[in-house]
Amino acid sequence: MKSVTIFGATGSVGQSAIDLIARAPDEYDVVALTGGRNLALLAADALRLKAKVAVTCHAELYSDLKDLLAGTGVEVAAGTLAVTEAAHLPADWTLSAIIGAAGLVPSFTALSHGRTLALANKESLVTAGPLLMQAAKDHRATILPVDSEHSAVFQALVGEDMAAVERVIITASGGAFRDWPIEKLAGATLTEASSHPNWNMGQRITIDSASMFNKGMELIETKEFFGVDPKMIEVLVHRESLVHALVGFTDGALMAHVGPPDMRHAIGYALHWPNRGVLPVERLDLAKIGQLSFEAADPARYPALQIAADVMSSGGLAGAAFNAAKERALDLFIAGEIGFVDMARIVSRVLDKMLASDGLQNALITLDNVLEIDALARKRADEAKTELG
Ligand code: NAD
Ligand code: MG
Fold it and tell me: How many whole angstroms separate alpha carbon 236 and alpha carbon 246?
């Protein structure tokens, strides 16, 4: 029996993980499931997987969740601190699949206990990569990447010597607007930005895919997790989303990872690592698919990529400021207060200002400093919105 805890169990990644675990109930002992407002789903999964604890991050929903699980034996907790508490409970495998910077503290806490952390929450690495990697080292914890591109790179590197790696290429579908004339992007609506050509994901990451902020974050994730020079990392537009990443070696070989666009692959790889499980994902019929296409990413269409490159060269707390400004700009776009292209304008402005005045580059990456810069960058994003009009 493997004991597992899932942070963000009610989300898109969390549900894919639960799908895998629910298929083999005798193999898993579920410790904690955490979620947000979807209490019905959280309670139903906690019950069917016989979880010890169910946690909602909203303190005010405690009694609602308690009512739903009354008499079932599942313990109930609520609030941000209760989510962190869940990371203190022993588990053999922990999935960090909360969306946004809120995933950082649970990720860090699990690592500080030396756990095996399957990391889908890319914000953990974007905001505090060096802190997380050091915590893993100090506490002999293991981080397994669950973003599809990073899982692909990780798999391509099995048995390889990092010194022989020349480049790492992560692919991007190009998102919802890959074929739109650039002039039209300013008028893109929330509904249009919320539909992904290939992947079925949560709304926020889907919009981040349309703007390529998602890929920008993944560049930073690649740098932090694999410890490679940003100059070695490339983005390649690949419309079919079947090749997830490629690793180039000093002898000219490129090892590509090919698989269906289904997060259960990356999650399942981390769940069964270091072995391979039997996963219920589609087996690709390449003869039927026929062709795969690749093209360079257009920097004019995707300013987020250059912003991410600037964040990588700045280092320090630039990632924390970048992520928080991006999260706030995304909130504003979802609320209908700014247009689609304003997100990149706001993030860029916040970073320029904070890099010039807030000493991000040389700051120490501690949890407190990350949280402080996070709050400041959100405030600066609101100011930028007003300034840009
Ligand atoms: P989602 O929006 O579908 O689900 C997010 C989960 O986090 C939900 O359970 C929600 O209740 C919980 N949550 C939200 N805010 C919270 C908070 N403040 N505190 C505690 N819990 C909170 O998100 P998702 O698409 O599943 O993405 C989850 C993470 O995985 C993100 O970091 C995303 O970038 C990453 N990721 C997702 C995919 C995908 O296919 N969806 C692929 C790769 C990486
Ligand atoms: Mg990805």
Answer: 10
